[in-house]
Amino acid sequence: MNVKMFISLALSFMAAAGIGFYLLHHPELIGHVRDISPWSMILLFLMSVATLAANGLYLRIFAKKFDIHLKWKEWFGLASVTAMGNYLTPFSGGLVARGAYLKNRHDFPYAHFLAMLAANYMIAFAVIGVTGVVITLTLSGTENFSWPVIFFFLATLSTILLVLFLPSPSIGGRNRLLRLVQQALEGIDFIQRDRELLFKLVALTFFNVVVGAFLFFTAFHSIGAAIPFRIALLIYLLTACTVLINITPGNLGVQEAVTSLAAAILGAGADMGLLAALIVRAVTIVSAFALGPFFSYLLSKELMASRAVPPSGTKELI
Questions:
Q1: I need a surface site. Which of 30, 57, 109, 179 has the fewest CB within 10 A?
Q2: Residue 13 or residue 287, greater confidence
Q3: Could you tell me the residue range of the domain that residue 248 belongs to?
Q4: Does some domain include residue 20?
Q5: For 232-237, what is the mean pLDDT?
Q6: How far is residue 213's CA from residue 131's CA, in Å, rounded to a whole number?
Q7: Which residues contact 199 (CB under 8 A, 6 or more apart)?
Q8: What is the pTM of this model?
Q9: Within-domain flag for 3
Q10: Inside any domain, residue 313
């Protein structure tokens, strides 16, 4: 076990222990969980599966641009396996498995995969920034309005715009962040040449945002915290930004901390925020591990069956 893995697992253990210790000393929170109806859990599970489908469709649409036509069990299966893998290993191990499958099954270059992934993050944070600013402004004049929140979304949006519109000379060197920025710019430039592709990817990202917001909205309401949808949306947007902080498997502890902080700032209560985050965590784990092993088996068979078949061609990302 290397040092990074050890540190990640240690942080995961401390986060889980901290959450358990907090709940142990606040037993009233457990009572809210007992009141959750089976219908609410089913609805939460279906919305979690819907986010997996949206992530899979994003991959399917992008891959099709390179004349790679993924079957449903591939695009949906890879999204499910990725979600499961991210819980099994730190630092987004599920994404590594997805890239490896596309490379071995369809000869999809890692450079193209990284460009797609980086462009995905750029689009996601652009949508998060715009949506966050607009929704926060609608709270102006209410007790839920927060200057730190709107400044955060403005900073996020400004960073994306700065990266997109400033001249982007070729970035060399071994700096990982600079290489990621360069790959993102290449991916965005490639997408911008196809307006239909860009529209589809933005629409899917917005769909994911709406479903994610409803996921938190339902989680809060299932425990008796009747917060407005706009607040649930902002809490989800702030929590979604933790996708870049992959220091523990599944971002365990990080998402819960950010959700609790966001809920406290926006007037929903830190306790209710933590409980809602744990409910969302539970349904995402259930959906990932209910579907992940099944599709891992199907994709393994697909990969073995394709060994004797020449891989499909790909276009150049230029």
A1: 30
A2: 287
A3: 32-114+188-305
A4: no
A5: 96
A6: 12
A7: none
A8: 0.86
A9: no
A10: no
